[in-house]
């Protein structure tokens, strides 16, 4: 009987595990079993963090940081690149300097990692790979910024950290110290880092102290607006791998405050006060999305929320947090732009609308739409969860930089 009970227990555990791991996947995903395992690992992590938070042991995001810390690797130089951790303008950065000789001045990329303004770091294995490959393939100086994170620090700290690093680096004395061509500097980032890169590029246009102009910006599945968290992509991809809608809402709200009232308002998409209604023109998907992404969706006017939230946390209406809120006039001077969007991603429409708005004001844009993959896919380039599509997109991004920077 004991044997039977053990067997039954084992079967139940296996069934439970299978149920947990098996999630219906979009039909067009490559390597679906790998994606399923990645997705299950992310869900399990989320459940552990949620439990820690509910039990009052640890803030959800602090618990999540424990998991990302496992991915950390110390700065390690190799035969191609010298890697050091240092500070630019009192902000921690990881610096990648190519070792191979250069004919003339080098190109440079200032990179901002993703992680929803709450987690992640330049030293995570996946980011270290991405920035190291960029440096090696382009023979470029790469500055990867360890900006301060929520919940300990809220907007605008993250923005101010990446902005001050970029501004410091763009000084002619610093560029010449690293042998960088002032005409060939780019900002780049993925997800929340793409948000920061877009915001930095916009802010530099307004800043009379900065003489060096950016050559390019590269935005990898960026988050670009806080106004409408019910765009078609938010609806269609509500429960897709890595970044379900409610997790994105949690990250957005945490960027501004740990007060759960903002999160609740954002979750029901009732956080924008009526006096900010003029901003909706910048994120009105019925005008800004191509037909094939609108199908099956009907635009409804926003439901307005209390003015009190916006007065307490004005950040969510600030273009430095939501670059899509910049006016056309403010977008006009932006540099050459690369935007990557993924089909199965709540942030898909943010990137699509920004690419469209930039094109409309004459900014040269390359928009790569990877319709058969999900948010954050370029994180999965290091084993054991290495995805072929992650490698392909990483090569597309570095290839674009190589041609345009």
From TrEMBL:
One of its GO terms (cellular component) is membrane. This is AAAD deacetylase. Keywords: Disulfide bond, Hydrolase, Signal. The active site is at 191, 345, 375. The keyword Chloroplast does not apply. The gene is Aadac. GO terms for molecular function: carboxylic ester hydrolase activity. It holds the Pfam family Abhydrolase_3. The lineage of its organism: Eukaryota, Metazoa, Chordata, Craniata, Vertebrata. Residues 109-268, 316-378 form the Alpha/beta hydrolase fold-3 domain. Residues 1-18 form the signal peptide. Belongs to the 'GDXG' lipolytic enzyme family.
């Amino acid at each position: 009987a004991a044997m039977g009970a053990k067997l039954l227990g084992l079967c139940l555990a296996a069934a439970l595990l299978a149920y947990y791991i098996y999630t219906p996947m979009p039909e067009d995903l490559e390597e679906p079993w790998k994606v399923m395992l990645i997705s299950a690992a992310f869900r399990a992590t989320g459940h552990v963090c949620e439990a820690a938070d509910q039990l009052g042991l640890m803030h959800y995001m602090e618990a999540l940081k424990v998991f990302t810390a496992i991915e950390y690797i110390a700065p390690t130089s190799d035969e191609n690149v010298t890697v050091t951790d240092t500070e630019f303008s009192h902000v921690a950065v990881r610096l990648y300097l190519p070792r191979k000789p250069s004919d003339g001045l080098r190109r440079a990329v200032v990179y901002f990692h993703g992680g929803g303004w709450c987690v992640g770091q330049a030293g995570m294995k996946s980011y270290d790979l991405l920035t190291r490959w960029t440096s090696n393939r382009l023979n470029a100086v790469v500055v990867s910024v360890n900006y301060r994170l929520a919940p300990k620090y809220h907007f605008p700290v993250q923005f101010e950290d990446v902005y001050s690093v970029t501004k410091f680096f763009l000084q002619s004395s610093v560029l010449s110290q690293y042998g960088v061509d002032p005409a060939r500097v780019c900002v780049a980032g993925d997800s929340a880092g793409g948000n920061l890169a877009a915001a930095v590029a916009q802010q530099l246009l307004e800043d009379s102290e900065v003489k060096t102009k950016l050559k390019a910006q590269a935005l990898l599945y960026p988050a670009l607006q806080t106004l409408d968290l019910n765009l078609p992509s938010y609806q269609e991809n509500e429960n897709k791998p890595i970044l379900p809608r409610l997790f994105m809402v949690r990250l957005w709200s945490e960027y501004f405050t740990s007060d759960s009232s903002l999160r609740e308002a954002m979750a029901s998409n009732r956080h924008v006060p009526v006096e900010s209604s003029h901003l909706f023109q910048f994120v009105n998907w019925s005008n800004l999305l191509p037909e094939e992404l609108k199908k099956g969706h009907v635009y409804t006017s926003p439901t307005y929320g209390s003015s009190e939230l916006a007065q307490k946390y004005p950040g969510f209406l600030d273009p430095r947090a939501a670059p899509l809120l910049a006016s056309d006039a403010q977008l006009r001077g932006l540099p050459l732009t690369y935007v990557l969007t993924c089909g199965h991603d709540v942030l898909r429409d943010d990137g699509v609308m920004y690419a469209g708005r930039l094109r409309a004001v004459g900014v040269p844009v390359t928009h790569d739409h990877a319709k058969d993959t999900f948010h954050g896919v370029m994180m999965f380039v290091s084993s054991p969860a290495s995805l072929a599509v992650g490698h392909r997109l990483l090569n597309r991004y570095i290839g674009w930089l190589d041609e345009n920077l």
